[in-house]
Amino acid sequence: MGSVSDLAHCERIRSACAAYGVPCSLRVSSAHTGPDETLRIKAQYEGDGVPTVFVAVAGRSNGLGPVMSGNTVYPVINCPPLTPDWGAQDVWSSLRMPSGLGCSTVLSPDAAAQFAAQVLGLTDHLVWSKLRASMLNIWISLKHADQKLQGSSL
Fold first, then answer.
1. Residue 154 has pLDDT above 60, yes or no
2. Would you say 58 and 80 are in contact if contact means Cβ atoms under 8 Å apart?
């Protein structure tokens, strides 16, 4: 996260990751005011041999996701914490990337966790199975809702 003011947003991501069995570490580093530290933290994760997806949470002018994306081959997901006052303007720094950067952007903490789980689930059968179970549960609830509506409309 770009600052501790992003902690609540990150906690929601961590909670959603846990549902998929995806470990989640929270770190604070500003790509604007501490790029050396940001890249040092990134290097720690690149060097540990553990499959990793970086979720960059930074409001206002998001430099964190683009800086990470420009300096790693690991997947980077932007998940900016939008605020009612400036959110509509701030999101553009997560959406418009310079050439050569491939980070995606999602607005929901749950979606960020699910996307990270989908990437990691490609090589982790336990994460994959939790994703499939979640999808099946959603399908079942939709079928039940549809059946209930059909029963009440007859």
1. no
2. yes
